[in-house]
Amino acid sequence: MSRRTQKDKKNPSQASNQESPLLKVVIAIIGASALIIVALINRSTATLPAEFTQTAEARRTLDAIIAQASQAFLLVLTPTETSLPLIILDSTLTPTWTPVASTTAPAPSTIFEDTFIDNRNNWYIDTSASLIAGGKYKIAVSCPTDYVSFYCGTYIKIPFALPKDFHMEMDITVLESSSDANIAIGFQVRRRNLDQYYINYFITDSDYSLRLAYNKRYLEIIPKTSTDLILRELSSINRLGIEVQNSTFTPIINGKILPQGEDGNLVNAGDSYIEIFISRGNSAMLQFDNLVIQEVK
User: Fold this and answer.
1) Which strand ranges, in their side-by-side order, compose the sheet holding 271-279?
2) Same domain, 68 and 116
3) Does residue 103 form part of some domain?
């Protein structure tokens, strides 16, 4: 065989050696892919062997594999609406807030009331001038023309032993009256014999006053004071009252608290009366309802 022919004949071992670099690249790429995926799952950075960076083609292939692996990894870990964790409260935990007591004052206790459904409390009844019917206590008053004083007074004891201090209110209505009648309605409190405090609400004159009868003398605690709180029309309901606490006396007209008066001469409990005054030569029909007496501390 000639020398030329020997040169042209390929050596099988030599061809195998020429294919070795390509196989190495493929094996390197596969190995790198496995290492990268494991590294990403374990959240640690893998260090590639030096032979994996021998060629530019290998680097481009490796970058593509890394990108695909990273994208796949992110898609797996991206949370969806159904994969969000639920917050479950632990009932055994001690709350970190402290309840604060309400600063609202408790409602005062009612110690006596009467809506006049009947006469279970034994009010004074005069068959010719007063009666309890239809949930109302009605009283007719009159004053003769020749009466010595300008006013005739009617006094009705409240059938309850009131304490020294209390809050009292009552609905009062003038149903009928003669054209020139001057009418005042009020309360006597802490009454013992002739000693007493008495507050008068003058319906027709729209004013009020508080006085003391003590040792046969009359002392002015709150002078006669005009007010626009009193309703003067017939059949109007005026809710009138008084609060008595120690030496302080507070008039009340239709839910409004008026300026207080102070006096310490009568410091003990006593009887309480409803009082009605009508000017001489006149008459009127009055109606009472919804008496409420509450404790004052």
Assistant:
1) 151-157, 271-279, 183-192, 195-202, 207-214, 217-226
2) no
3) no
- 162 and 274 co-located in one domain: yes
Please enumerate, as own/partner, the contacts of 118-125 that have beta carbons within 8 Å and a separation of 24 or more: 121/159, 121/160, 122/159, 123/156, 123/159, 124/156, 124/157
Q: How much of the chain exceeds pLDDT 70, in percent?
A: 65
Cα distances (Å, whole numbers) of residue 226 to 92, 118, 150 = 65, 36, 20
pLDDT digits (tens, 9 = 90+) for 38-57: 454 454 444 444 444 444 55
Residue numbers of the domain that contains 32: 12-77
* Beta carbons of 201 and 186 less than 8 angstroms apart: yes
Distance CA 158, CA 271 (A): 8
Assess whether 174 and 246 both reside in one domain: yes
Number of domains in the chain: 2
Q: Is the same domain home to 67 and 114?
A: no
pLDDT tens for 225-264 read 999 999 999 999 999 999 999 999 999 999 999 999 999 9
Summarize the confidence of residues 114-140 as an average pLDDT.
95
Decide if 130 contacts 137 (C-beta within 8 A): yes
Residue 100 lies in a domain: no
Q: What is the mean pLDDT of residues 20-27?
A: 57
Residue 116 backbone class (left: φ over 0; alpha: ψ -120 to 50; beta: rest): left
Q: Which candidate, 223, 186, 175, 228, places its Cα nearest to that of 205?
A: 228
Q: Specify the 3-state DSSP secondary structure of 33.
A: helix
